[in-house]
Amino acid sequence: MKIAIMGYGTIGSGVAEVLRVNQDILQKKVGEPVELKYVLDIRDSIPEDNDKLINDFSIIKDDEEIKLVVETMGGIHPAYEFVKACLESGKHCVTSNKALVDACGSKLVAIAKEHNCNFYFEASVGGGIPVIRTIYHNYAGENLTEITGIMNGTTNYILTNMREKGADFDETLAEAQRLGYAERDPSSDIDGFDTSRKTAILLSMASGNRCRHEDIYTEGIRNISKLDFLYAGKLGMTIKLLGSVHQIEDQYFAYVVPMVIPKSDPLFSVDGVFNGIRIVGNCLGTTMLYGMGAGKLPTASAVVSDIIAAVRHQNEFQGIGWSEKMISIEPMSSNAFSYLIRVEGTYDDIVDDIKEFFLNEDSVLSPIVLDGRNDEFALVTDIMFEGDFMENVKEFEAKTGRRIFHFIRTKKDNSDDI
Q1: Predicted local confidence at residue 365, as pLDDT
Q2: Do the domain assignments include residue 327?
Q3: Alpha-carbon gap, residue 239 to 232, rounded angstroms
Q4: What's the CATH number where 29 sits?
């Protein structure tokens, strides 16, 4: 099979490298050679020492020898128009582009079906972690009730280093940028939008219908401080940015937020630039996928796995994806959490007020106080709906005159004695 790559940045060049290094392995697995014929680079100037490089998309579209196209350009336009045209020409398409899959995935799957070819997107979530194929194939017989994951290596690196070094956010972000783990403009990562797009793709896969990442409540890590980690550490817990989807009967819940998690959570030990995705099925129970969630070769490896699938199924539509029917996501106020809250002052004279707004009648106040500080303390509330919690915060501050400096959502876990 002859193929083309559109986009020759980090991922595109990685795909070309994997195809070159593992060409013999690929041929043995698919029964025919996989030959890279073109690499599209639409920039004005391209190197002249590579006879595969072109800057005219129509060459790929009109070449009947090209049976598969890999899209690693990024963004929605012109990636969507190029992929759409390839599918309409009966060419299989593989992408690592989460923005494209999130915004246009259902349309492109429908076009692929119409023209009896395939649209694959394994590398759009989790880099080298095979989560898309796992959900579609391995867990096809499961009712997936929850998918929760650390899906952004930049934010996980920052949070890991804040915990280990006791540093604040701005300092750690600057270090991540110096080391190349964070972009010059890191907003998509640190504000949670990268994770939100991946969460939307996972919810679409699990539900079989489309959702928009704009409808997912998204909160990044800019407001996480070293004090938050000190309080979490006192509980034997840590802080991670999680994308999470839950299904309860016919209701869908989804959010991207920093959360305090206990050691019993398999995501607790996912550190640095690694990613982890926890999947819960009604019969399966809990399992987790772990690995490099980004990077040139891990992501390229996932792309190549899709190339193999396309060669093996080159004469049939596999149907990986979801319909264009939109699903409704429940509002964030309908989710229930415990909350790690940091309260101004000392707790001695406001115990009754704390219990009134944040604890059940039979709960015991267990304040967390850091050595040498009497300007604030922390506690973990009982479980309450987010809407009720937000209202209680306002009422507590109005009644006591004390500020809630910050709160982070969590799940109480008795096994960790918190």
Answers
A1: 96
A2: no
A3: 7
A4: 3.40.50.720
Domain count, the chain: 3
Report the half-sphere exposure of 236 (CA within 13 A, side-chain side).
11
Q: Look up the CATH number of the domain holding residue 344.
A: 3.30.70.120
Residue 50's domain comprises 2-127+298-312
Whether 208 and 192 map to the same domain: the answer is: yes
291 SS3 class: strand
Residue 125 in contact with residue 151, Cβ under 8 Å?
Answer: yes
Residues marked active site are found at: 198
- Confidence band (pLDDT; 50, 70, 90) for 51? confident
Position 293 scores a pLDDT of: 86
H-state helical runs in 1-78: 10-21, 23-30, 57-62
Tell whether 321 is covered by a domain.
no
Going by pLDDT thresholds of 50, 70 and 90, the confidence category of residue 414 is very low
For residue 128, give the 3-state DSSP assignment: coil
DSSP string spanning 339-404?
Answer: EEEEEES-STT-HHHHHHHHS-TTPPP--B--TT--SEEEEEPPPEEHHHHHHHHHHHHHHH---E
Q: Is the pTM of this model over 0.85?
A: yes
Q: Based on C-alpha coordinates, what's the Rg of the chain?
A: 24
